[in-house]
């Protein structure tokens, strides 16, 4: 009998798009296999009105899917890598990291204005501490307003709350087919993305050899190496959604580069560091750049942010 592979996904439009994209490739590569998508709500889907930084849970968007995987109700789960904690539950692994095209943050604004063209005191919607801190560092006159919910909700809130602009991950907007709405991809010297942003990751049981093998078909080595470095940096800084940390790793030919920032919530202090290394030294590079940030004053910033003043 043909094995039916059960694939776990959150039920948001973006999550389903990503899951279908992964499944479509696997189906094409493995015409003898059949797949079934099983959707689940995670705690993060149920608590849409609370700022992520306030919920402060690890695995807010992943835990239910991980439990289902450990209980063998599903065989693998598709996530936004950005939503995955840096330490996974025992027995689970990232079976594949897929090719990332767009890791940046996108500005969606009234009249299509770019960041530099926004008026004094412009009101910008985002609940990400990382985006707030970097935007305030760039333009202290901006007024950042809380904005959560799935992509559809956030778009509606821009109009109903009369915001001048909102910021969303570019990858999500492209996947939803809304690229026409993007005024600008915010340059990395203004705003570095979240660790793993733009990359789709597939999580599975460590001991499921067949599934691990299958997932090699959607693995993209350069994206894996770049995001390994980003995740290693985040692990070293012990950051989650509660701390403004941005990072971007990139493979150019046979070299891996990593740039990162850590900032205070008000954006008044922002520290930037970077490094470069060999492709097989991703973890080490993450630690090296994290340690640079810590020694340049990042340690004090992290302490200050965590103590809540
Ligand atoms: N925080 C939620 C989340 N997780 C992944 C994405 C977008 C897709 C991606 O980064 O791969 C988003 C939306 C956003 O930040 O605008």
Automatic annotation (TrEMBL):
Cofactor dependency: dipyrromethane
Molecular function via GO: hydroxymethylbilane synthase activity
Pathway(s) served: Porphyrin-containing compound metabolism; protoporphyrin-IX biosynthesis; coproporphyrinogen-III from 5-aminolevulinate: step 2/4; Porphyrin-containing compound metabolism; chlorophyll biosynthesis
Cofactor note: Binds 1 dipyrromethane group covalently.
Function comment: Tetrapolymerization of the monopyrrole PBG into the hydroxymethylbilane pre-uroporphyrinogen in several discrete steps.
Similarity annotation: Belongs to the HMBS family.
Designated name of the protein: Porphobilinogen deaminase
């Amino acid at each position: 009998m043909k094995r039916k592979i059960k694939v776990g996904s959150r039920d948001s439009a973006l999550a389903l798009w990503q899951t279908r994209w992964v499944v479509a490739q696997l189906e094409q590569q493995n015409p003898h296999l059949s797949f079934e998508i099983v959707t689940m709500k995670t705690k993060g889907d149920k608590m849409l009105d609370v700022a992520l930084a306030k919920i402060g849970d690890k695995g807010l968007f992943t835990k239910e899917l991980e439990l289902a995987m450990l209980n063998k109700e599903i065989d693998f789960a598709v996530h936004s890598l950005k939503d995955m904690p840096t330490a996974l539950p025992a027995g689970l692994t990232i079976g594949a990291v897929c090719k990332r095209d767009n890791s940046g943050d996108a500005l969606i604004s009234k009249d299509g204005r770019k960041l530099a063209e926004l008026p004094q005191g412009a009101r910008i919607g985002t609940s990400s501490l990382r985006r707030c801190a970097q935007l305030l560092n760039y333009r202290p006159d901006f007024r950042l307003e809380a904005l959560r919910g799935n992509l559809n909700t956030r778009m509606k809130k821009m109009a109903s709350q009369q915001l001048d602009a909102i910021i969303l991950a570019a990858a999500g907007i492209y996947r939803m087919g809304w690229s026409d709405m993007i005024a600008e991809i915010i340059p990395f010297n203004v705003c570095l993305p979240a660790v793993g942003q733009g990359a789709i990751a597939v999580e599975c049981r460590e001991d499921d050899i067949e599934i691990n093998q299958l997932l090699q078909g959607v693995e993209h080595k350069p994206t894996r190496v770049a995001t390994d470095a980003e995740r290693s940096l985040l692990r070293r800084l012990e950051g989650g959604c509660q701390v403004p940390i941005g990072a971007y790793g990139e493979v150019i030919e046979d070299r891996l580069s990593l740039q990162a920032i850590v900032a205070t919530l008000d954006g008044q202090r922002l520290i930037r560091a970077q490094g470069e290394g060999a492709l097989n030294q991703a973890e080490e590079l993450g630690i090296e750049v994290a340690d640079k940030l810590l020694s340049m004053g990042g340690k004090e910033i992290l302490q200050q942010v965590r103590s809540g003043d």
